[in-house]
């Protein structure tokens, strides 16, 4: 037979106090003696009582629940964002409900409805669609994350500084002698692709390089997407060493697979630079040099901003988080070869 769930009446009876005194003690109210509070807490432990947070939330207007809607929980970068958000929420006594939209607008809308029904205090959302209708109807405090948030400048948002990150990667490629790398980009429908490509174009124009002349391939932000894009790059005519800047680390790791399958070596024949900083890059062979986005820090900062929104202290505007370079072994240094090559071509 299923055991009845203990109630606050059971706690009060066990502690020898009134129900109201037990309630005040368990809620942390100050108008309870230390001795009574200790008896109530001990009684709660003894009978196995757990406070009904939903019922408390209905009375107070707060549930202590936050929502997080990310595009792909299987991508380690987004898992890091979720971990940072969860840790910060827990530090503030809140719980986090995590949903993955899988880059699907319908699924995202369904998740937003579920969060409203769960009476969350607010949510952190990476919007996957250009339409703002679903967020207008959300009716609760929210903070946006990811590159997609740039479409909505009037709302608080937190994300990586993509322009700084792309420039950081390009400057590192140039320092290694790779002045005209090929690109592996995400789908044309994603705003992250446009932001990446815009900064890349600016970098090339500053160095008198025609970006239209550089090879580019699109693919999904997955290992297989990077693999197939890299295979297409390898089928193109080329001279000398090939350097590739991939739009995320999963794609970069897939590109490494394609290089091996083609009988080539990384970095001896092909250099590869990733973008995200996921842990798997440290365990590939060679290790993946990458521009690391601050996934966990984004999650932490987004929760801080959300608490401000909930408290009526909004941080309107976009918070840009700086990225950093992690150098491993996937980029060859060909800078010393270039003077010899130039001299050799000059002798005709």
What does this 3D model show about the protein?
InterPro entries: HTH_LacI (IPR000843), LacI/GalR-like_sensor (IPR046335), Lambda_DNA-bd_dom_sf (IPR010982), Peripla_BP_I (IPR028082). GO terms for molecular function: DNA-binding transcription factor activity; transcription cis-regulatory region binding. It comes from Ensifer oleiphilus. Residues 6-60 form the HTH lacI-type domain. This is LacI family DNA-binding transcriptional regulator. With 348 residues, this protein is α/β, with parallel strands linked by helices. The chain has three domains: 8-51, 434 Repressor (Amino-terminal Domain); 65-159 and 295-321, Rossmann fold; 162-294 and 326-335, Response regulator (Rossmann fold, 3-Layer(aba) Sandwich). Helix content is 44%, strand content 16%. It contains 13 helices and twelve strands. It has helices at 8-15, 19-27, 34-47, 53-60, 76-91, 105-117, 133-136, 162-175, 191-206, 223-234, 249-261, 295-310, 337-346; strands at 65-70, 95-100, 122-125, 142-145, 157-160, 182-185, 216-218, 242-246, 270-276, 289-292, 318-321, 324-326. The strands form two sheets. A six-stranded parallel β-sheet has the order 2-1-3-4-5-11, with helices on both faces. Strands 7-6-8-9-10-12 form a six-stranded mixed β-sheet, with helices on both faces. Strand 1 (65-70), helix 5 and strand 2 form a beta-alpha-beta unit. Helix 1 (8-15) crosses helix 2 (19-27), helix 2 (19-27) crosses helix 3 (34-47) and helix 10 (223-234) crosses helix 11. The N and C termini lie far apart (93 Å). The model is unreliable at 340-348 (pLDDT under 50).
């Amino acid at each position: 037979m299923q055991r009845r769930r203990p109630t606050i009446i059971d706690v009060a009876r066990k502690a020898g106090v009134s129900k109201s005194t037990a309630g005040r003690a368990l809620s942390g109210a100050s108008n309870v003696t230390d001795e009574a509070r200790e008896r109530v807490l001990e009684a709660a432990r003894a009978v196995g009582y757990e406070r009904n947070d939903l019922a408390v939330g209905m009375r107070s207007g707060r549930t202590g629940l936050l929502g997080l809607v990310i595009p792909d929980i299987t991508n380690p970068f987004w898992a890091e964002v979720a971990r940072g958000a969860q840790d910060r929420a827990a530090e503030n006594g809140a719980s986090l409900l995590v949903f993955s939209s899988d880059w699907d607008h319908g699924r995202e809308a369904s998740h937003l409805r579920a969060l409203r029904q769960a009476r969350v205090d607010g949510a952190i959302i990476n919007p996957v669609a250009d339409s703002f209708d679903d967020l207008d109807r959300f009716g609760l405090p929210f903070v946006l994350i990811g590159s997609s948030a740039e479409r909505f400048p009037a709302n608080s948002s937190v994300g990586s500084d993509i322009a700084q990150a792309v420039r950081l990667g390009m400057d590192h490629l140039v320092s290694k002698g790779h002045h005209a790398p090929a690109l592996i980009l995400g789908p044309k429908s994603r705003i992250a692709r446009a932001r990446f490509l815009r900064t890349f174009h600016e970098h090339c124009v500053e160095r008198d390089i025609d970006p239209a002349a550089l090879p580019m391939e699109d693919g999904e932000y997955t290992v297989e997407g990077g693999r197939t894009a890299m295979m297409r790059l390898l089928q193109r005519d080329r001279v000398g060493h090939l350097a590739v800047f991939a739009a995320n680390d999963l794609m970069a790791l897939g590109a490494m697979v394609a290089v091996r399958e083609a009988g080539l070596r990384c970095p001896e024949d092909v250099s590869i630079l990733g973008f995200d900083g996921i842990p798997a890059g440290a365990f590939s062979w060679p290790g993946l040099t990458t521009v690391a986005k601050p996934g966990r820090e984004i999650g932490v900062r987004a929760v801080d901003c959300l608490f401000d929104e909930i408290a009526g202290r909004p941080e309107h505007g976009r918070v840009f988080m700086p990225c950093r370079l992690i150098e491993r072994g996937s980029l060859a240094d060909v800078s010393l070869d270039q003077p010899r090559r130039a001299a050799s071509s000059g002798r005709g």
